[in-house]
Each structure stands twice: as structure tokens, then as C-alpha cells.
Amino acid sequence: MNRDVLGLVNLQAEQDDLDELTYFRSGGSVPFMGRYRLIDFALTNMSHSGIKTVGVFAGNKFRSLLDHLSRKEDFGFEGRNSRIFILPPDWNDPSDISEGDLRHFHNHWDLFDRFKGDHVMVTGSQFITNTNCRGAIRYHKEQDNDITFIAERRPQEDIPGAPALKILTEGDSLTGFNNSSDHNHIYTGIFIIKKQVLLDIVRYCIDNYKTNLFHNGIREQLDRFRTGYFDIEGSTYYFHNVQAYFKNSMSLLVKERYQDFFHGENLVKTKISTNPPALYKKGSDVKSSIVANGVVIEGKVESSVISRNAAIGEGATVKNSVVFANCSIGRGAYLENVILDKGVTITEDRRLIGSEDKPYIVAKRSTI
Amino acid sequence: MTSKVVAMLLAGGKGTRLGELTKDLAKPAVPFGGKYRIIDFTMSNLANSGISTVGVVVQYSPLMLNKHIGIGKPWGLERQTGGVSVLAPFSDKGGGSWFSGTADAIVKNLKYVEQFEPDELLILSGDHVYQMDYTKMLDFHRSRGADATISVIEVPMEEADRFGILNTNEDFSIYEFDEKPENPKNNLASMGIYIFRWDIIRSYLLEDEKDELSDHDFGKNIIPKMLLDERRLFAYRFVGYWKDVGTVTSYWEANMDLLKEDFQTLLRSNSWATYPNEENRPPEYIGETAEVTNSLISSGSFIEGRIEDSVLFTGVRTCGGTEVKSSIILPDAVIGNNVILERVIVTTGLRVPAGTVVRAAGDDPVVLSEGTLGDYLHKGGGKNE
């Protein structure tokens, strides 16, 4: 058990840079693989790491997040002492001079104050993995580090570009970060920190008009702390732009990867919603795709993600595409390298073709 | 609602005629329609009708059923007052015994019902697949000033001798109850759904309990007695899909009905949802070699091979070269390479080895289970082939 570790999903520190997909929702609320949202993976990681209390710093676009996280049990946070606190922007302190994500830390300080444990694990939502952080937390405690950064080593040909940070190390400790595209020791965006150290950093940042907890309070002040890093091993994905989002979706459509990622020991949990099993009508032709509940397919689907309650009409073709929930694709339509946001209607015989590097994105609830 | 209704859902059925499907499972808990259990239809009807005080009376093999029902959360029926209670046979100072009949199951739980001081008692069974708004039946019951109302459905005349038939006057008042009549006078069959005025049924139940010759059954004893006393009994006519999934064949047929255009609202209605006790499983993966046509596939599955006119439950795996036709594959079953199944029901978690061929030859589908699998192996085919 890691009851003494508070989980913190800091969505405020992230850019909402998934283009149309984040116009009206935060990065953490972006749907992924048929029924999940990106934040599910961070929460699942925490739950499988034995963390019982989680705070979520929500940015401005928090409506979909409140709805999604309304039942903590669905995410594996079961029992009286298990909680998810969703903390939207709420600033009422007249003496408050904090800026940037420090405003969240300042105004929601009660979260840390009331938590009895000594450690905080801070994550974002733009990195997902199918492993958990138990090993990292154990290492952090054993080493008595102030801050332990969670990293991974990737093969040289598979290094995520900026803004994914890379770490520089010397022995067991960390000496710096950079954005170099040929350095393969990648920072996952997760760190474990002593609560008291976090408190001191927040004070320092606010008192000195700093705006970013990680960059101003930690990255620029590394030599003030006893730091360490822990390399995790598992499948990992980064979501810094729409291209990465699309590429990750296609990558997970390979059967072995999908099985390894979603059917491993750290089962990903999400909001439970009720829809009937998918119906594959006469004449449907589905290959190498994942299909969520409530879907009705009459057409052809190849290498695509079909989310809840989508309907694909007779003679329609969906290829290398990601279809969000409640979309309706008319008869004879042809989609290739396309992302349809929720509730999009594609009219009969419409053809939409994007490219692998630049998928064609259709914004939420539009009709084309 | 000013008037109080308590529902008693009789979920104790042994389901003997379902054979292997009810080996360790009460009939209402038998998986159905890809991700549901049979009782989900009745539970969802209650939820959609806004009736939230429900006693679920269990008896045979209740382990799975108890966990499934819990406090009614999947149907949104968990309440601070009322709510869902699972009622198991229990012992008191006088000792304990199983329920000897449907009426006995209520008498033994009299204290449960009485605590709510209801105006009406709604009796349901957990064995049927249907979608019904009980409030409409309740309105009918009240508007007729009835002592008891029995829900009926029109069945084909040639099948009427298999049911309890109600003979009614023009105003739908009941004058006669024929249990499985040789020469049925009409085709209005009882669906086993009753609404009683509580104050009246209470005394009938207590009186019946004292009668040692009685089977303590609503259809056989209580209703005939009320008719004899010239009580106000009415038949409420239900129009819609209704199926008793009492036999392997009717179970298979009801699952196949879910694939038909006419019955899509059984699972896909916008106004009358059917709620399962949902599991948190990933969306199904349809593989490179898959050919799926006219079938239901559920979460957590990995599908290869040809799947035609079939219902596949959660967590099923089918391998390449396999052909599944007109079959039902229950949760977490694994079908190996080059297996051929036709009109087969594969039981939960069964591993069907590569190369197995089973085709149902007779009228009834084959139930493939741990116990029967051996009959079909090492023979290059099934005994039914």
C-alpha cells in the first residue's frame, strides 16, 4: 500500500495542444481507444500503484472532466478512505499573488494540508503506460530522495520529439533536462516528491513571482534538492500533438500491442457506461479494428477505432481512422486518415481523406 | 406517487430444463444477450417504471445472483429507504425451510413486505425476457378497483395448452383460470406477473399457509381461491415481446431474436434501456482474418475467423480458421483454431480445442460444456454430426 502518497494529476501545467480535440476540453479529457479518456491512464496508474487519494487540478475546460470522474469507484478508488478530489479554478483569496499553476497549489493547499502522508506523486495526462509506479515509489522512499523523476530509455529510432523532456544524469542523481531529439533517456512527466519539499517550492515560487512550479521551482533549482530518477519498463505513449495522438491510436491497433497494453496486469479503468454489445449487421466487414459497446456497423471498417454508439451505414468505408462516440456515418461515405470528434454526422457518399502525418479532423457535433 | 408498491421478484427458479447452463447458477443469473443476465430485463423494467422497493427472493445456487443484484446499483435502485434487498431462505426460532411455492416465498418474507406498509404488492419472476412498464399495469389495476390484476399476453392458439389461460369477460374481468387446459377457450396466457391489493392478498396468503394440502402457489391455489370468493380479478393485456427462456431451445431462440431487425429495441431502446451489471473491459478487437456478419460481439473479446448469426459474450476469444454459425458463446470461452460450431451454446470459460467440430443435428442446439466436450473430441466430429 502507498497510502502515504498523495496522487496529483496536474492538468493545469499542460498545454491543450491537440488542436480541434482540445478546443472545448482539456488534454486529460480527450477520448482514446474507443471508451477511455487520457486521464484514465494516469488515474489507473495511481490506483495500481496503491495510491488511495488523488487530487486533479483541472483547468478552465473542466465540464467533461467533472462528468467523467463522477464515480470514483469506476476508476478503482473503492472504499471509504479512497477519494478523487476534482479541483477546478476557484480563486477567492484577496491576498493571493500566485500565478500560473502555482494558483492551483496556493488555492487548493487544503488538499495537501489535510493529507496525512509525506509524499506526493505528480503526473500529467500526456504520458500513458501500462505499468505502474510501485517500484518508483519504493525506490524514492528507500533512497530518501527529495524528488524522484520517473523516466524511461527508448530505442534511438523511437524518441518522442519536443516538448517531451529528456533527462541528464550523473550516477544516481539528476543533473538537468533538455529537449535534445537524439537523447534517449526520456522524462515521463511524473515525479515523486516529499510533501514538505513541495510546500517549500510552492512558497519560494509564489514569493518570487514565478509562474511554473516545475520549470521555475524544480528544473531551475535542481541542485538544491536530493534528486534521483527511476526508469520504468513497459509500453509507453506520449501525446504532445495531434500527430502523436493519431500515431499512438494506429500503433495500438496492432493486435499484440493492444493485447499487451489493455489486457496486462494493470487493467485500465474508466467510467462505466451502459451500452449494448456491438451489432455487426449483414454485409459488415470489419478488420484489425477495435469496436466499443453500442456500435452498429453495416459498412466496411479497417484499422480503425470505433467508439461507443457510433453507427456506420451500409456501403460506407472507414479506414485508418478514429471515430469518437455517437458519430453517424452515412451510406457510401469514404473516410481515410480521419479523426471524427464526438457526435459528428457524415452525410451519404461524402469522401474525407487526410494523410497519415496530418489526419483530417472534424470538430465535435458538426455535419459534413 | 401517493400509493406505495412493493415488488417481490421471485428469482429462485432452478431452471432444471436449462441443463448445463444452470449447473451452478440460478436460472435468472444465466448470461443472456452478450453482456446481460436474464434477470436484468426485469430489474431494468423496475428501474424504468420507477419502482424502487424490491425484494429479490433467491433460493437455488444464489452465489452469482447475490453478487449480481447486490443493492441494485447497476439499475440505479440503491435507495436510503426501500431499495433492493436480496431475500434468502432463512431460519428463525421455528427452524428453517426452503420456499415450498411462490405464495410461500411471500409468506416467509411477510415481515419484509409489511415494514413498508404497501398499498399494492407486485409479483414478478426473473425468468422472462420482456420490456414492460409496470406503472401502466398499476394504473389499470387502480382504475378497475381490482383486488388482483394478472398480466396476460396473446399466445398462438395451438400453444395455449402450455400456459395458464385466463378466461375473461368483455371488460377483462376474469371468471376462470385454466392451468394448461386441454381445450383452451382462448389464448390469453398468464405471464406470472400479478398486482394485488396488499390488505386483501395478505389474508389469503396467511390462510393458504395453514392449508396443508395447498402447493402454496399463486397460479394453482391463491388465484382459484380468489375467483371462488368472487373477488375482483382483472386481466391486463400486454402487447410486445415476451419470452420464457425455460428450455435450451427457447434460450437459444431468444438470443437469436436479438439479431432480428424487429427486436432491436430489446437492447437498443432510447426510452427503455436494459442495464447489465457492467464490467470495466476494453473494447473488442476484431482481427485481420475476422469476418463478422449478423452477430453481437461484446467487450474484452478478440475475434478471428468467421462469425455468422451468433451472439458472443464478453471476453471471448476465437482463433483463425474457425467458423461459428448460429451459436452462442458465453463469457471468457476460448475457441481454438479451425473449430466449426453450428447451433452450439458454449458455456462460460470453456476452452474448445483446435479442430473441434460440433454441429447440432436435431431440433435442439448442443450445449458444449466441461462435461459434454469429451463426447466431441477424438472422433473427428461430433456425435450429432
Describe it for me?
The complex is a heterodimer of chains A (368) and B (385). Chain A has helices spanning 38-48, 63-68, 102-107, 109-114, 134-143, 195-207, 213-218, 242-251, 255-262; strands at 5-10, 31-32, 36-37, 53-57, 83-87, 119-123, 127-129, 147-153, 166-170, 173-178, 185-194, 227-231, 236-238, 278-280, 285-287, 289-291, 296-297, 300-302, 305-306, 311-312, 317-319, 322-323, 328-329, 334-336, 338-340, 345-346, 351-353, 360-362. Chain A is α/β, with parallel strands linked by helices. A 7-stranded mixed beta sheet of chain A has the order 5-4-1-6-11-8-12. Chain A has a 5-stranded parallel beta sheet with strand order 14-17-20-23-26, with no helix packed on it. Chain A has a 5-stranded parallel beta sheet with strand order 15-18-21-24-27, with no helix packed on it. Chain A is globular, with a radius of gyration of 21 Å. The termini of chain A are far apart. The model of chain A has no long low-confidence stretch (mean pLDDT 94). Chain B has 385 residues and is of the alpha/beta class. Chain B has a 7-stranded mixed beta sheet. Chain B starts with a strand and ends in a 9-residue tail after the last helix. Mean pLDDT of chain B is 92; it is low at 380-385. Classes of the chains: A alpha/beta (368), B alpha/beta (385).
